Write a sequence for this structure.
């Protein structure tokens, strides 16, 4: 029977340093009682099959060495910064089992803000809006410099469809497309009324697709470790009660979707036109 990386590491530690193992178990038990975020972090930490033993040992070492800190400091400083070191280190997914087209959803405002930070040499926010307008209209080609700008600053989470190979967002049907996107992909509740951009690109354009681990998820609330034998990661949708409360879509329209994480790709790899889902709240930036 396969055991999680945490169990494997702790079994070894209980032999080598029983006191340390007991300290870690005590810390995690108390952390789990501290907050809802503590519950999610600890449960996932103990259930991750895909993070390496070395990376798990480092995370546990950092928690153990800083166990005198408050849980807020552990979460926001120690755990967060340690996880950043070990992103994109989950096993590589067999790309032959993945649909040809993969994609990710981002709020328009946050994407433009992030893009402007990566295009300072191209004049910042105004140029970022211009690039996004080009991506969404497909009427004017990107310049070589624009095409070379990275799609994101860090690693990217991607999904795909197991039934419609060329449309990662086949589930986002009208009406309430945005709600279906954020609930199925487990995006933040605050994104519900925001305009979203649906980015689609070829799986062949990414360096590799990796199983998401606790290090990739970091402090994010909607993440659940996948089973050891799953061919990919799976999104953690919103809680059923949050969906029922809105009375807009059915629980049957929300289920885990395939997911993986990958490294940087240039914007030139994104399929055009990018689909825009218009939100109900006012956007900071206007896409022409």
């Amino acid at each position: 029977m396969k055991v999680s990386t945490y169990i494997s590491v702790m079994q070894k530690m209980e032999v080598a340093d029983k006191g340390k193992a007991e300290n870690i178990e005590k810390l995690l038990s108390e952390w789990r009682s501290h907050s809802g975020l503590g519950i999610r972090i600890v449960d996932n930490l103990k259930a991750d099959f895909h993070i390496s033993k070395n990376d798990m040992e480092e995370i546990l070492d950092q928690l153990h060495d800083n166990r005198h800190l408050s849980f807020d400091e552990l979460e926001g400083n120690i755990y967060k910064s340690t996880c950043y070191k070990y992103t994109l280190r989950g096993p590589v997914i067999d790309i032959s089992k993945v649909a040809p087209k993969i994609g990710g959803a981002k709020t328009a405002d946050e994407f433009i803000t992030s893009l402007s930070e990566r295009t300072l040499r191209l004049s910042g926010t105004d140029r970022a809006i211009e690039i996004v307008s080009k991506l969404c209209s497909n009427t004017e080609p990107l310049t070589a410099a624009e095409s070379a700008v990275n799609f994101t600053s860090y690693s990217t989470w991607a999904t795909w469809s197991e039934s419609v190979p060329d449309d990662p967002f086949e589930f986002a049907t009208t009406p309430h497309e945005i709600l279906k996107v954020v609930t199925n992909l487990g995006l933040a509740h605050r994104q519900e009324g925001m305009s979203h951009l649906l980015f689609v690109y070829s799986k062949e354009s990414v360096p590799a697709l990796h199983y998401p681990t606790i290090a990739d998820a970091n402090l994010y609330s909607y993440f659940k470790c996948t089973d050891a034998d799953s061919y990919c990661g799976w999104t953690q949708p919103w809680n059923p009660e949050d969906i029922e409360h809105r009375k807009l879509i059915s629980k049957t329209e929300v289920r885990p979707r395939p997911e993986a994480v990958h490294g940087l790709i240039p914007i030139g790899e994104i399929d055009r036109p990018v689909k825009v889902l218009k939100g109900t709240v006012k956007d900071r930036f206007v896409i022409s």
